[in-house]
Specification:
Blueprint (H helix, E strand, L loop, with lengths): L3 E7 L2 E7 L12 H7 L7 E6 L3 E6 L6 H5 L11 H10 L6
Antiparallel strand pairs: 1-2, 3-4
Length: 98
């Protein structure tokens, strides 16, 4: 399939924009070049940020971790803090701050 490109000048910089078609079902085919650029493959997830001016920023979505991953992120031997310890540290404030 032949892909169309559009030359855009934004803030004095010439950019090449890929022209993508929207199907009747509202789906968009990104094409191999775009997928390679995003470093994603089939069945990957994308994060879409809606920007002003009708623009959308796409990027590969970061894999979601689990709460279990978080619980085990502290290496063995590191200090474990209780809620009371955390409360005392918070009451002391940040070093160098009044």
């Amino acid at each position: 399939m032949r892909q169309l490109a559009l030359l855009l000048v934004l803030d004095g910089v010439v950019r090449v924009a890929r022209v993508l078609k929207v199907t009747a079902k509202g789906q968009v085919v990104l094409g191999r070049e775009v997928l390679r650029h995003l470093e994603i493959g089939e069945s990957a997830s994308l994060a879409a940020e809606l920007l002003p001016g009708g623009r959308v920023e796409l990027r590969a979505a970061l894999p979601a971790g689990s709460i279990e991953d978080f619980f085990h992120c502290v290496p063995p031997g590191w200090a474990r803090l209780t809620i009371e310890d955390i409360g005392e540290l918070a009451a002391q404030g940040r070093p160098g701050r009044a």
